[in-house]
Amino acid sequence: MPTLVRKTLGEYRRALIGWTVGLCAFLTMYISIYASMMKDPETFSAQAIAKYPGAFRDLMGGMSDIATGRGYLHAVAYQLLGPLLFTMCAAILGNRAIAGPEEARTLELTLTLPIDRRRLLLERWAALALGLLAVALVTLALVAGASSAADMEVPFGDILAAHTGLFLLVLFFGTLTLCVGAAFGRKQVALAVTGVWGVAGYIVETMGRNLDAISWLRWVSPVHYYLDGRPLYQGWPYGDYLVLLGATAVLLMTALLAFERRDVGV
Amino acid sequence: MTAVVETEGLTKFYGARRGLEDLTLEIRPGEVFGYLGPNGAGKTTTIRLLLGVIRPTSGRATVFGADTRDPRVRARIGYLPGELALEGRERARDYLQFLADVRGGVSRGRIDDLAERLDADLSVRMGELSKGNKQKVGLIQAFMHEPELLILDEPTSGLDPLVQQEFLAMVREARTAGHTILMSSHVLAEVEHVADRVGIVRAGRLVAVEDIAALRERAVRHVELHFDAPVPKESFEGLPGVRDLVVQGASLRCTIDGRPDALIKAAARYTVVHMVSAEPDLEEIFLTYYSEEEGRHAHAGA
User: Where are the alpha helices (DSSP H) in B63-130?
Assistant: First the structure.
């Protein structure tokens, strides 16, 4: 493994372990209460769900089949909170690639090493991607194990498809944070762009289904390419995932070009 | 021999603010070049341009004949940043080892030798290093791969006097090994004992490049002579280079510009019992010399 990838992963280690533990705790907690909720069908009966305002139901991804194992798993793990937490993790780590060290002024010495800037950025990105992949793999194993233990009856193939989408989504947002950080060298700017694009993207994707005024915006929402194919129900939405991957590649290219010509640390 | 560092019309603007303008400079192989100027004059800007951390607005800079963007050049440079930031939980030794690996390795025991010389504790986590220890770690990483060019931005800040001496010895050793050194400072006193030449930068412009030896010749000295009996003032009046002459009984005080030769010869006619000559203050000559230069330029322009 290249020195810089190894070094960066070393720097990420504590954060990665922390986020993995946090995500696992969150997932375990939610999946384990599925069984007890199912004992009391009233909680998630159609009448009970119908009491929620329509817009809220849209935001939560419909909730129409939350009483099934698949619907419940989707609602708690893959619709909102799972992607939200995992994206926060990706954004925080993405900021530690360039913008963080630049603001802390430790990047200057790194730049004077005999490594060109493109390689520096690529290796830091590679470390970010590997780190996120590790978190994704551990949480995938956990979701697969916990959901089968809770008798949710969701095939592993569908969980894998959904989890892959989740990974691609957070990789996109992590790369976005890294890219904005590489272009401007400011953590706050990078977090703001990622936060606004992420939250607005989510709202546009979920509310936009039933709101023509904003539905055309869905195609610029990264969340659209993650949620629209309903991978947990329908398996692999290859085209959508390729869009996410392609967008990530474009961001990475942008980061390389922007970082190459920028003054660092001024 | 080709220059180690060569710049031509090197200019850097930060938006509308001038960082450095039209710097043309050559640093020769094997010399110690002192780069002087007040804070904010453009020293760090120059250094960052040479290392490719920032990009020039216009002009050209080469190091070892190659563009500053060429990463291979940087393997031959040792750099100490002016504001060295070291953070994190990593131990200083591991960080140094990482830097060494990326630079292609350092000879065995070199890091420990330097740490011992500078009395640095490398088992401390980087975020917990004191200011002085940070500077020591910075010096170790700059010197450890025995680079052909050392670029040191305010190297002695934060070091106690003993360590400063050790640092100056390291600089001399590097020069003896034929390496080139560029070191910046805001005071001449910090570099005058090791530098061969000094450049002065002010408000983004290089105002002078001088040989230290030539500068020393022109240095202002305060001299005090004590004789065994009162001396006549007339014997010392009008001597070349002697100013501010005060004779009081058996003692004499004056200021000498340049060589003390005439005064010594005049004093030799009497019995000298005690003599005090303050270390030449190059700073002073520098400032007077260049304020005169500037005055003349202003005059010529009028």
Answer: 71-74, 92-102, 110-118
Tokens of A211: 């709101």
Q: Report all structural domains of chain B as residue ranges with CATH numbers, in order of start.
A: 5-211 (3.40.50.300), 220-279 (3.30.70.2470)
CA A260 – CA A152 distance, rounded (Å): 50
The phi, psi pair for A3, rounded to 5°, reads: -50, -45
Q: How far apart are CA A223 and CA A200, in angstroms?
A: 10
User: Domains of chain A: which residue ranges?
Assistant: 3-27+80-260
**Residue A80 in contact with residue A202, Cβ under 8 Å?**
yes
Polymer length of chain A: 266
**Is the distance from CB of A90 to CB of A171 less than 8 angstroms?**
yes
**In the Cβ-directed half-sphere of A263, how many Cα atoms lie within 13 Å?**
17
CA distance A138 to chain B (A): 25
Cα dihedral B90→B93→B98→B100 (10° resolution): 160
Closest residue to B98, CB basis, from A3, A14, A263: A3
**pLDDT tens digit at each of 266 positions of chain A:** 888 999 999 999 999 999 999 999 999 999 988 888 777 777 667 777 778 887 788 877 777 788 888 999 998 899 999 999 999 999 999 999 999 999 999 999 999 999 999 999 999 999 999 999 999 999 999 999 999 998 888 999 999 999 999 999 999 999 999 999 999 999 999 999 999 999 999 999 988 877 888 888 888 999 999 999 999 999 999 999 999 999 999 999 999 999 998 999 87
- Contact map slice: A 115-144 vs B, CB within 8 A: 115-116, 119
Q: In what order do the strands lie in the sheet with B5-14?
A: B17-27, B5-14, B58-63, B66-67
- Please report, for residues A2, B85, B141, the alpha-carbon distance to residue B77 in angstroms, rounded to integers and kept in the order given: 22, 19, 11
Contact A114 B74 (CB under 8 A): yes
Q: Could you count the other beta carbons within 10 Å of the beta carbon of residue B269?
A: 9
Please name every residue paired with B78 in a beta bridge, in sequence order, or none if there are none.
B150
What would the DSSP string read from start to end of A186-245?
-HHHHHHHHHHHHHHHHHHHHHGGG-HHHHGGGGG-HHHHHHTT-HHHH---HHHHHHHH
Task: Tell me the CA distances in angstroms from A209 to A55, A59, A162, A201, A218, one per residue in order.
Answer: 10, 10, 20, 12, 9
Sheet containing B149-153: give its strands across: B77-80, B149-153, B180-185, B32-36, B197-202, B205-211
Contact B51 A111 (CB under 8 A): yes
pLDDT in tens, B58-108: 999 999 999 998 999 999 999 999 889 999 889 999 999 999 999 988 888
Amino acid at A8: T
Q: How many residues does chain B have?
A: 302
Inter-chain touch A105–B85, beta carbons under 8 Å: yes
Amino acid sitting at position A222: P
All residues of chain B having their beta carbon less than 8 Å from the beta carbon of residue A108 are: 48, 53, 81, 85
Please report the ipTM that was assigned to this predicted complex: 0.85
**CA B202/CA A225 separation, integer angstroms:** 56
Distance, CA of A17 to CA of A15 (rounded, Å): 5
